Amino acid sequence: xxxxxxxxxxxxxxxxxxxxxxxxxxxxxxxxxxxxxxxxxxxxxxxxxxxxxxxxxxxxxxxxxxxxxxxxxxxxxxxxxxxxxxxxxxxxxxxxxxxxxxxxxxxxxxxxxxxxxxxxxxxxxxxxxxxxxxxxxxxxxxxxxxxxxxxxxxxxxxxxxxxxxxxxxxxxxxxxxxxxxxxxxxxxxxxxxxxxxxxxxxxxxxxxxxxxxxxxxxxxxxxxxxxxxxxxxxxxxxxx
Length: 240
What we know:
There is one protein chain. This protein is an alpha+beta fold. It folds into two domains: about 5-165 and about 225-235, NADH Oxidase; about 170-200. The protein has helices at about 5-10, 25-35, 55-65, 70, 85-90, 100-120, 135-140, 170-175, 185-200, 210-220, 230-235; strands spanning about 45-50, 75-80, 125-130, 150-160. It has a four-stranded antiparallel beta sheet, sandwiched between helices. Helix 2 (about 25-35) runs antiparallel to helix 6. The longest helix has 24 residues, at about 100-120. The protein is globular and about 55 Å long.
């Protein structure tokens, strides 16, 4: 196995960091790795807000659901869909198509994953913060985002101060279908539930008893940030 595969397959979310800073050269490599990511039609519809102001960090941690590592991490990057650049170049740009929001979300995810992998390759760690969308409008106002631009998620980066176990994933044959969509075999889910229960029971911190299937379907059975659509609409996105 080469070093790239090893880095990818050993990914863990890091939520506890030392006080050590990330060197500017390291951060530059991380950002450049993100910029090198694939971009749909080379539209390049992502903006990254590097938040260093301590007061804003504390506010963002609160907006994200009191996630302290937003404030404590060496670096905090906020990834945004951004069509304002394009509208500034050409006022005829129509950014309100849902397809363009999908493209922006996809490209943000690709860019952010490049950034995180670059960081992990240098011995750093991180965790994504989707909780910013709990208070999307407030985050938007704090970061002074213009029209045609919307917050998606944050990324904490820093030197790890923990060494969590790798969390099991669904087996590849459940995810990868051959030539057509195949029906789910509940035996695979039962086996994965057992693996996750074993993981939760034996991991070094935050041990618990929980079935993956019960946990995720329970989450999906409730509301999922219903304020996001009106927020995106207010930014001139996802209107048609």
